[in-house]
Structure formats: C-alpha cells, structure tokens
Amino acid sequence: MRETLYMEHMREHVTYNQEGGLSSPLILSSWTFHDTPNGSRKHDRKTAGFFSKSSTGERTFFIYPKEITWKSGMVPTARCSERCPPGLRVAPGKSHHVCCYECLPCAEGEISNVTDSEHCQRCPDVEWPNQKKTTCIPKTLEYLSYKEDSLTLIFSITSLLGAITTAVLLKVFISYRDTPVVKANNRAVSIILLASILLSFLSVFLFLGRPVDVTCMLRQTSFGIIFSVSVSCVLAKTIIVYIAFKATKPGTRWKKWVGQTLSNYIVLTCSSVQVLICGIWLSVSPPYQEYDMFSSPGKIIIQCNEGSVIGFYSVLGYMGFLAAVSFLLAFMVRTLPDSFNEAKYITFSMLVFCSVWIAMIPAYLSTRGKYMVAVEEPSGHPGGDG
User: Fold this and answer.
1) What is the DSSP-derived secondary structure letter of residue 22?
2) Strand, coil or helix: what is 222?
3) pLDDT one-digit tens code per residue, 135-167
4) Do residues 93 and 38 both lie within one domain?
5) Do 221 and 278 touch, CB atoms closer than 8 A?
6) Containing domain of residue 106, as a range?
7) What are phi and psi of 368, to 5 degrees?
C-alpha cells in the first residue's frame, strides 16, 4: 500500500511506502516569490539539494548552499546561544544540543583572544591579563618607592627629624661631658646610647626604595646590632642605678662595681652576642632580593627574602630578650629615691617598647610586600629608650 502526499506549491507528488519510507526521490528546492507590475506573483525555483540512496543502502543528503536564497539575505545561524567574545570561553550548557552553550569568563591569570574560544591561555609569570582579559600586559612592580609612595616620604621625614633631634642631644652631651650632671648620668654609656639611637633612625633608609642584595643583607643585621647596642646601654644604666643605691650601705661589696668599667663590659658583652648571631646568619644563609609574582594579583612584589628564618627570628628574639630584661630590672628599682634615678623613665620606655614589639608580630606576619616593611619601621625605633 502506498500513500501519496500532494505538494501544492511544487505541484508534485511525493510517494511513501507502507513502512513510511520515500519511494520517490526527495529534492530540496529554493523558492523565490516576487510581485510583477501587473499585480500577479511569480516565483523562481532552484534545486538546492536532493536525497539519494545508494545500492549499498547508504543514504546521503546533498545540499548546494549557493543555490539557496534566504529572505533576509543572510544565512541564519543554527545556534541557540550568542557567540562568546574574547575574554570568555565556551562552557557546555544544560541542553544536549552542541549549539547551546554558556559563556564563562576566563579564570584569574588567563585570557582568550578569539571568539568562541574553548580554552583560555595562561599569561606568563611576569604578565597579567588586562581588564577585559583579552591580552597579557606586564605586571606592575611593588616596593616602597621614593617617587610613588607617600609612606616613604612620611618615614623619611620622621626619621630625619628623629635623627636631627638625637644629634642635637648628642652634641649637648659631648659639649658638657665634663660637667657633674653628665658624669653622674654615666657619660660614656649615654653617649653610646645617643649615637646608637641616631644610627637606628638613619638605618630606616635601608628599608626604603627598591631592595637589592646589599640592602637586604644590611637592613636587618645592621638594625639588629645597633638596636642591641642601644638596649644594652639601657640595661647597663639600669644595673648601674641598682648597684649605686646598693653601694650606699656601709661595708657593702657593691662599691667595687660602681664605675664605668662594669657598664662598658655589659654593653660590649650584650652587643657582641648580637654581632655573633648576625655573623652566623650572614655566613650560613644571608638575606637576598626576590621577586614574589604570586602573592598579589597583577603585581610583582620586590622584597627581601630573609634567607635563614632561624637567623632572622634569633636576631628579633635576642632584641626582645634584652628589652624584657631591661624592663624587669627597671621595674624592680623604680621605687628607689628620685635623685639620679632613671629607672622610672626606663620602665615606661621599655613598657611602651615591649607593647609595640608584641603588637608588631601579628601585624608583621599578616602583611606582605611594602606593607610588611612599613610595619617593621615604626615598631623598631628605640627613640624613647634614653
């Protein structure tokens, strides 16, 4: 049994067999309709394709795209999604059709520079995607710059003011070094203390600007030694104050310890320990300049790698130990008579220093790059110790 389907526009018959298959050839026609001047409609027909079945049973549908005339004049796109522009990538959608997909932005550090890109390309380590993620651009360099960072100007002015003030005090002490007041204030230790504070203020400039290997090796070691000298002077002055009041009792053995010899020995011994620690640190694993390319997106952080972590924290720990000992001794002798007793001022100074030092540790560990350097500088000024 055969069924016949009559095609009105084609004026042709298409015959199906009992199984629903085509028993007559299937031709794809392209029809174009247009109006004539006399009011009638004409049409043109072009064969755009046909369906054939070979003797082996293979079925093939041939199409001639050039013979097809589209109403809009443009070939329609067989898609249910808009094309993915550069900066996005193709991702499978919920539909099972291949033409239905989603456009997702490239991951951080990746770009796509073609339409309907299936994969995004990762930028080199020294480059970063632009805002549209269509091309890679060089990463910006980050460090405490003299030209671009206001923090650098603030630290420079503060350090210079502190250094000038300390230099004026040092000049006064040297000018009046033979007066009873300066002698009673432990002249040699006071001058060493003021000189070390002056150098501590000036050592701030080792932390500013673009780091290099030389400044990386000098910044922590020089500051650690200078700071240890200043704290050692404070410790020596505290011990001398304690011994001086103990020596006032008749027949006491403390009198032989009164003088500059003991204070000089304390300063030299305590400072030598820090020099030894820094020497071992520099000989085993010294600090060096490094480029951190991954901590901050789009930036290359130029910073100092401290080399040996044990050496770095040994220097900081020893400075904290000296400060803690000075604080405890000053606190013990704070109630002695006021005349020439610096213990109260030393106690307050060490209390402030220890508080800042303890607060600096979590802030230092939680920051990176130039902000880590910014945390180090104000927390390290020993200006109040004298």
Assistant:
1) B
2) helix
3) 999 998 888 888 888 888 888 898 899 899 999
4) no
5) yes
6) 88-138
7) -135, 160
Same domain, 292 and 364: yes
Q: How far apart are CA 358 and CA 133, in angstroms?
A: 43
pLDDT band at 25 (very low <50, low <70, confident <90, very high): low
Higher local confidence (pLDDT), 293 or 374: 293
Whether residues 187 and 261 share a domain: the answer is yes
Return the H-helix or E-strand segment holding 35: strand 26-35
Number of domains in the chain: 3
Same domain, yes or no: 336 and 267: yes
Residue 206: inside a domain: yes
Whole-number Å distance between alpha carbons of 126 and 123: 8
Kindly report the pTM of this predicted structure. Answer: 0.68
Q: For residues 264 and 192, state if they share a domain.
A: yes
Residue 73 within a domain: no
pLDDT tens digit sequence for 90-116: 887 676 666 678 888 998 889 999 988
- Strand 140-142 to strand 136-138: parallel, antiparallel, or no bridges (unpaired)? unpaired
Burial 76-115 (b: 16+ CB within 10 A, else e): eeeeebeebebbbbbeeeeeeeeeebebeebeebbbbeee
Judgement on whether residues 131 and 167 belong to the same structural domain of the protein? no
Residue 59 domain flag: yes
Same domain assignment for residues 159 and 124:
no
Contact 103, 88 (CB under 8 A): yes
Stronger pLDDT, 314 or 261, i.e. the higher one? 314
**In a shared domain, residues 26 and 156:** no
Q: How far is CA 9 from each of CA 22, 42, 43, 44, rounded to the nearest angstrom? A: 19, 12, 10, 11
The string of DSSP codes covering 302-353 is EEEE-S-HHHHHHHHHHHHHHHHHHHHHHHHTTTS-STT--HHHHHHHHHHH
For residue 374, being part of any structural domain is answered with yes
Structure tokens at 188: 């040699």
Residues 171 and 165: their CA atoms lie apart, in Å, by 10
Provide the token pair at 381. Answer: 């000024």
